[in-house]
């Protein structure tokens, strides 16, 4: 998809809105940054005159407007009832973040987006609300709310992705599941959730570049694509296994750190839900991988016309190789 040049203006104002929200010294300034971010993302959604894009833009606007209204109401309430205002602020930010139990809008919006916009929604659009939530982690009740939301994200994100064939919805529920790990990290330390977010950013970048290159919107599109080959199946497998957090891929490293932090903080009960949900998400990633390799195996496939290996992309190879950095960790431990 070729974007017009003036869309770069909306992209930079989107980043500017996130920076204004993060660096603001008041909640009113944070609200202004979030509004700038929202109003910059909506033109990026409607890159073409398409009813699906328009529907997603309208849904996104209504949900974000509701969260903004709740946030600005809470900032006014903070003058008299600070604790109650903090609770409503947390709920508003969870709504903007598509964190459970306010996750209902996220898969529906994702279903109508192109892959570049889906990448922005899964990564950059979540940065500012998570930073603002980390500012509120000064009260034990708010921390408890975040932990409960993380447990719900882990459970609903894993169960919602079962039996799905649409890749954008699958990635949406996967993002909700990964949100549980980041919320737990926010409740403990700023370093760990920022580290997790950076790793997640690059893994999702490699996956969305891959699916955008293949023009794949469902699992059947992965097989029928003109670029489909055993090499593309291998790249997809590396990306999905890293996204699922399977050791020793790169996606396992931040989960490893967070597991250690949760054990040190006696968060055994939430850790059980996070690990169980990780196994379920790994199941529906493996279902896609096994299907791909089964159909590309000459012994197990029937009446399949093989296509030449035309899947050559240096930048895609570079982004996919990021998922193999985790393979160096056991080597480093062995040498040291």
From TrEMBL:
Record's keyword terms, sorted: Electron transport, Membrane, Mitochondrion, Mitochondrion inner membrane, NAD, Respiratory chain, Translocase, Transmembrane, Transmembrane helix, Transport, Ubiquinone
Class of enzymatic activity (EC top level): translocase
Biological-process GO terms, alphabetical: mitochondrial electron transport, NADH to ubiquinone
GO molecular function per UniProt: NADH dehydrogenase (ubiquinone) activity
Residue intervals passing through the bilayer: 5-22, 57-77, 83-106, 143-170, 191-211, 231-250, 271-296, 316-335
Subcellular location(s) per record: Mitochondrion inner membrane
Task performed by this protein: Core subunit of the mitochondrial membrane respiratory chain NADH dehydrogenase (Complex I) that is believed to belong to the minimal assembly required for catalysis. Complex I functions in the transfer of electrons from NADH to the respiratory chain. The immediate electron acceptor for the enzyme is believed to be ubiquinone. Core subunit of the mitochondrial membrane respiratory chain NADH dehydrogenase (Complex I) which catalyzes electron transfer from NADH through the respiratory chain, using ubiquinone as an electron acceptor. Essential for the catalytic activity and assembly of complex I.
Name used for this protein in its record: NADH-ubiquinone oxidoreductase chain 2
């Amino acid at each position: 998809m070729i974007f017009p040049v003036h869309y770069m203006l909306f992209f930079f104002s989107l980043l500017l809105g996130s920076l204004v929200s993060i660096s603001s010294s008041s909640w009113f300034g944070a609200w202004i940054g979030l509004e700038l971010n929202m109003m910059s993302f909506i033109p990026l959604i409607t890159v073409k005159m398409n009813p699906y894009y328009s529907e997603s833009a309208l849904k996104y606007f209504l949900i974000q407007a509701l969260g903004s209204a709740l946030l600005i109401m809470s900032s006014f309430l903070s003058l008299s009832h600070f604790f109650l205002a903090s609770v409503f602020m947390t709920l508003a930010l969870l709504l903007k973040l598509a964190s459970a139990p306010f996750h209902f809008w996220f898969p529906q919006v994702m279903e109508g987006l192109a892959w570049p916009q889906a990448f922005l929604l899964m990564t950059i659009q979540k940065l500012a609300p998570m930073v603002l939530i980390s500012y509120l982690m000064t009260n034990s009740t708010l921390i408890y709310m975040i932990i409960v939301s993380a447990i719900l994200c882990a459970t609903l994100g894993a169960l919602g992705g079962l039996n799905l064939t649409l890749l954008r919805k699958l990635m949406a529920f996967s993002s909700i599941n990964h949100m549980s790990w980041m919320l737990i990290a926010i409740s403990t330390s700023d370093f760990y959730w920022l580290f997790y977010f950076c790793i997640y950013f690059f893994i999702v970048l490699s996956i969305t570049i891959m699916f955008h290159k293949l023009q794949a919107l469902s699992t059947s599109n992965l097989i029928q694509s003109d670029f489909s080959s055993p090499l593309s199946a291998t790249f997809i497998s590396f990306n999905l296994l890293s996204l699922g957090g399977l050791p020793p891929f790169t996606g396992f490293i931040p989960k490893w750190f967070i597991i250690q932090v949760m054990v040190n903080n006696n968060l055994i009960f939430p850790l059980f839900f996070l690990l169980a949900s990780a196994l379920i998400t790994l199941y529906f990633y493996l279902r896609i991988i096994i299907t791909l390799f089964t159909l590309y195996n000459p012994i197990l496939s029937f009446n399949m016309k093989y296509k030449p290996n035309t899947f050559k992309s240096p930048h895609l190879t570079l982004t996919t190789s990021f998922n193999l950095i985790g393979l160096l960790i056991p080597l480093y431990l062995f040498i040291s």
